[in-house]
Amino acid sequence: MNEEGQVLPAYSQPFLQTAIRELTARGPLTAITPEWAWGGSTGQGVRVAVVDTGIEYDHPAVGGMVRGGVIVEWDDSAKDKLRYIPDDQPIDLAGHGTACAAIIHGIAPEAELYSVRVLGRNMGGKAYQFAGGVDWAVENGMHVVNLSLSTPKQDYFAMFHALADDAYFKNVMLVSAASNFDEPSLPSLYASVFSVASHAGKDPFTYYYNPTPPVEFGAPGVDLRVAWKDHGYGTSTGNSFAAPHIAGIVTLIKAKHPELTPFQVKSVLWACAANVRREES
Predict the structure, then answer these.
(1) Helix ranges, 82-126 (H)
(2) Beta pairing, strands 82-86 & 66-74
(3) Residue among 185, 256, 184, 250 nearest 217 (CA)
(4) What is the pTM of this model?
(5) Which residues of the chain have pLDDT under 70?
(6) Under 8 Å CB-to-CB from 245, ≥6 apart: which residues?
(7) Cβ atoms within 10 A of the Cβ of 106, count?
């Protein structure tokens, strides 16, 4: 509360700002720098799933690092209404998944990429396909999962919350784009995921911490040149393209420090964010 009796957000209270500056300048987080966090890392040994429209496995922008994946299809005759089809040489039905995979590859060039196709040519799909894709990634040994898709429907809150918690406790990093619209979006609302929105910068390693969640981090996502289907490229804007920037950096951190949990990786990201490190100086 300030002198006028107004209640201030916790982050804006002077004592907390001072504590953060001291923690980053002189405290135990002083040693957590970008060089410590991911310097020299290429993502080698880390498996990254892109849950999306598929990845064009032979697109030059993914550098031959696509190792396979799965197609999750709706099937009324199946026990759980889902059919999982192995996808050794995946294609991209729309281009969106390839764009996300290429951003991750550009940051973490030796990470192994897996295509988890849950969306169709019109970028549409059922929430249960989306959930099935996340579940497949968690149960099939992925370390990082990029989710540049979401649902605003609160009917699925519990289902996605359980999936996000399952990933969190299995040390799988779920990186989720917030909706481009002013609406709640699942699973980006959950504290167990890395929630991302876009900023207008172009440096892939310049990202910001947002002190007013649920969106936690801001990364490049405005007027970006991105890979697209049929070996093509285009210019796109959206939180969809910010999320894979954070997924790529998380992949580098995971490769260099495989023992870190999602909570610890979030702490590293916070300590290395451009706006937090500026406060340090």
Answers:
(1) 96-107
(2) antiparallel
(3) 250
(4) 0.90
(5) 1-28, 278-281
(6) 103, 107, 196, 204, 207, 219, 220, 221
(7) 17
